[in-house]
Design goal:
single chain, 365 residues, alpha+beta, Phosphorylase Kinase, domain 1, five-stranded antiparallel β-sheet, two-stranded antiparallel ribbon, 12 helices, 11 strands, 39% helix, globular
């Protein structure tokens, strides 16, 4: 049976610098064990028989997600290794899905960062297209904001998540061989570990940014993304830049502090577009009214809320030139977290007799 793991053809098409960068990391990822853990991203070979065995022939009980690209399954190999297995829709004639598949592979093959899901390999066989990536056990950010897992994540944890995501996007924009625009930053594409560290996933819409060395300022391309997160300037002009990710990140910041989805179709008209509603309340001096009702209204939370909304306002600027870079966003969020921790400590000292059970959980650095 002819199986083809095409990672090598993707790797050979990347730049020499990228090859050297991966090669220099080989020691970190080398492992004597026949396991995806401890191996160089993209270097794992596997067959369709192994995939079928790992997912019990794609049993519905192993299904953990669904998207435009296809279905995601939790898989367990014979050595006990657990991975996420993305199975593309069997739409042989759907050229868009084919493009998204190749885009995700090329992007994942180039990137490696603590806050991005790891890529282990992929397989194309007949009408099957499989991507094998790191399994992140604790669900998506959106699920946690909806309390699907039963616990409320406090503002300290949400702030840590925002910083993790900012670091991931900054890496894509600035520290890869060629800048990458994710194009689909949203809460359902942010996976959380058991320690609530964030990992950005789903690179199906990713694009290489414009080549600044050639003087280009943007990439002209068909609009891709998710309603509610889309940069309106990109939507209007078809001009894609890194600042389109910044806009989506601004929407995400609002989502983190309000707990609401970007579009709330069942609410009254003035509250349906969450970012627009939240920024209006903030401008009117009523930011406290938009704080997620599941969060406590403390001095520390109110301080962080104001500062996060101030940053979100900059990210949501109508014109890309007015938006900060993702690196700047990360720096500002670090400063907000520092002030938040200081205010939280002050709150605790002042109200320790009344604050049993209210100490925020801070994830490990």
């Amino acid at each position: 049976m002819n199986y083809s793991n095409l990672f090598l053809s993707v790797a050979s098409s990347t730049s020499g610098g990228n090859e050297r960068r991966r090669s220099s990391r080989r020691g970190i990822y080398s492992s004597p064990a026949n396991s995806v853990h401890g191996r160089e991203p993209g270097s794992v070979n596997f067959t369709m028989e192994e995939i079928n065995a790992a997912t019990r022939n794609f049993s519905p009980t192993f299904k953990i997600g669904q998207g435009g690209f296809g279905t995601v399954y939790k898989g367990r190999f014979q050595d006990g290794t657990v991975v996420a297995i993305k199975r593309a829709k069997k739409s042989v004639y759907d050229k868009h899905l084919g493009v998204e598949f190749q885009s995700e592979i090329r992007t994942l093959a180039q990137v490696e960062h603590l806050n991005l899901v790891k890529f282990y390999g992929y397989l194309e066989h007949e009408d099957e297209r499989i991507v094998l990536v790191e399994y992140v056990a604790n669900g998506t950010l959106r699920e946690h904001l909806d309390c699907i897992h039963g616990n409320v994540i406090d503002l300290a944890v949400r702030l840590d998540i925002a910083i993790d995501v900012a670091h991931a996007i900054t890496y894509l924009h600035m520290y890869t061989d060629h800048p990458i625009i994710h194009r689909d930053i949203k809460s359902s594409n942010i996976l959380l570990t058991e320690n609530f560290r964030a990992k950005v996933a789903d690179f199906g819409f990713a694009r290489l940014a414009a080549d600044s060395d050639s003087g280009a300022t943007h990439v002209s391309t068909q609009v891709k993304g998710t309603a509610g997160y889309l940069d309106p300037e990109y939507l209007r002009t078809y001009q894609l830049t890194e600042k389109s990710d910044v806009y989506s990140f601004g929407v995400l910041l609002v989502e983190l502090v309000t707990g609401r989805r970007p579009i709330e179709a069942k609410r009254e008209i003035k509250e349906r577009i969450t970012a627009k509603w939240a920024i209006k309340k903030f401008a009117e001096g009523n930011a406290v009214l938009i704080l997620d009702p599941k969060l406590k209204c403390t001095a520390a939370n109110n301080l962080a809320l104001e500062k996060i909304l101030e940053l979100a306002l900059q990210c949501l600027a109508p014109h890309r030139q007015s938006r900060p870079s993702m690196r700047k966003c990360a720096e500002i969020l670090w400063s907000i977290r520092k002030d938040y921790k200081e205010q939280s400590a002050s709150d605790f000292r002042s109200f320790s007799s009344k604050s049993q059970g209210s100490i925020s959980v801070i994830t490990e650095e």
